[in-house]
Write a structure and sequence with these properties.
Rossmann fold; alpha/beta; 8-stranded mixed beta sheet; 7 helices
Amino acid sequence: MSKRLRIWHVGNWCIHLGQKYVESPFEAPSKDVEVVNYAQPFVDALRAIPGAEVISQPSWELYHMSPEGFDERLKWATTIVFADVETKCLMLHPDFFTRTKWGDKPVTFPDRFDVLRTWVERGGDGKGGHFHMNGGWLSFGGELGKGGWGRSRFAPVLPVTCLQHDDLIESTAGYPLRTTLPNHPILRGIDLATVPPLLGFNEVKLREGATSLIDIENLGTYHPLLAEHRFGKGRVTCWMTGASPHWGINFMKWKQYGQFWSQVFSA
C-alpha cells in the first residue's frame, strides 16, 4: 500500500440495557448493561488492511467532542467513515443545553459540517481526504428523515442526493445486485453473485457526475448501492446499506468481505 491509512470510524455503537423484571407493584429493575459496537466485524476488516490504523467511536462521543478534539481527529485521519450518525451529532453540542452557559455571552462553535467539507475539499490537507458513509436507519435521509444529511451543509459533498423523508427500503429476503463496471479497482476480483442477502438499504439518487459502481434492485427499479465521486481534492464513497447487523448480518459473513473493504479504502 502506497500510503498509510488512518481511519476514523464513527457510529454503530449502542448501549444494551438488560431485561426488565417486574418484581412487585413498586419494583421493576433492569438487570445487566452492555456497550456494544455493532460495527465490530467492519472495524476488524479495516484493521486487517495492511498498515491501517483504526479509531472507532460511538456517535455520542462525536456529539460531546470539542472543536479542538474534532480538529485533532481530522488532522490525524486519512479516511473518515460515518455510519448511522444523524446530523444532530454534528449540528448540536451539549453546551447549548447547559444552564451554566446561559449567562450573557453568545455560545457558538465552528460549524462542523463546514470544517468537514473543507477537509474533504482540500484532500485531507494532503493526506488523502477520503470520506465514506455506510447506510443505516440514521444515515442519508434515514428513518422518517431523521438522518438529515440531505438538509445539511455537507449534502453537496456526497455523490448521492438524499431523500427528505423516510428512505428505508427493507426485506427479509434480500435484493438482486448488478454492476456495469466489474473492472473498476474497487470491484476487481469481486464476485457480486456470491454476496449474501442484504436486508435493506437507503434509497438515494445518484448525483450528476458521480458513478454508481453497484446497483440494488427493488420492485423492478435499480438504485445506487455503492457510489463515488471526487469533491475538490478529496474522494467520497457511499455504501447505502449496512456493513454490519442488522442489514449487514449476512453481508459480514461473505467470503470476500475483507477484500471488498480493503479495495474500497485503498483503491
